[in-house]
Amino acid sequence: MGTKVHSTEQKVDVDCLPEVIARRTALFNQYVLPFSNMIYKLCKDYSWSPQNVEENYSEVMVNFYRRIETYDPNRPIRTWIHICVKRQVWACERQRNAHNNKSDDNDIDDYRDELLNDDHVSENVLGVDNWREHYSPDIVEVIDELKPRYRDALILQEAGYSLKEIAEMEYAKGSLKTLNIDTIKSRLRLARQYLRNNLTKDGQRIPHQTDPEDVP
C-alpha cells in the first residue's frame, strides 16, 4: 500500500510579498496621495449620506492601493482617479444599502443624469463637454470632423469608461438602439482608424483633403 504524501507547499499571498508592497507603496505615493484632497471631495460628492463619507474615503484609498499597478501613466491621472472614485463609492453605497435591507434596484436609468450631465466633474477631468481643452488644435480639428456617435464613443473611452458603460450611456441618450457592445467596438475602430489616417504619431494634422464620404 502506497504512502500518502502531504504537500507542505503553501499558497503564496502575492499582496504580502515585500517587493509587491514596496512597488505599490511607491506608485501610490506618486500618483494617488498628491490628489488626496480631490479624492475626499469626490467622496463627499458621490456619497449618499454625509455619515458615509469617511468610510467611503477609506475604502476608496484602499482600493487605489490595491489597483495602483493597473494605472497607465499615459492616461490623464485626474480622469482615472475620478472614474475610480465614482465606481468605488457607488459600489460601497449599494452594498451598504443591500446590507440594510433597503431597496437596491438601481440600474442605468437611476444614474442617467449623473452619467450624461455630471455636475460634479471637475473642469480638469476629460469629458464629452470639455474634451477640446485637453487636446492640441490639430487633434481637436480631426476629432471634430467625426459624427457625434463616433466622437462621443471615442471621448468616453479616452475618459476611462468601459465598453459596457459607453454602451449604456449611448443607449440612455438614444444614440444606440440596443445595448450592443459590438456596435460601440465598431464605432471606436472606425474613429481611431480615421485619426490614424489624418494625424501623425506626434498629433500633427496630415495635410491632405479628406473625402467627406470617408468620415465616419
Describe the overall structure.
This protein has 216 residues and is an all-alpha fold. The chain has 9 helices and no strands. Helix 3 (53-67) crosses helix 4 (77-99) and helix 7 (148-158) crosses helix 9.
Q: How far apart are the termini?
A: 73 Å
How does the major sheet shape up?
A: none
Radius of gyration: 22 Å
Instruction: Identify the overall geometry.
Output: globular
The computed structural class is mainly alpha
Explain briefly what this protein structure is:
This protein has 216 residues and is mainly α.
Write the topology of this structure.
Elements: H1 18-31, H2 36-46, H3 53-67, H4 77-99, H5 112-116, H6 137-144, H7 148-158, H8 163-172, H9 181-198
Helix pairs in contact: 2-3, 2-4, 3-4, 7-8, 7-9, 8-9
Question: Keyphrases for this structure?
Answer:
about 220 residues, mainly alpha, 9 helices, disordered N terminus, globular
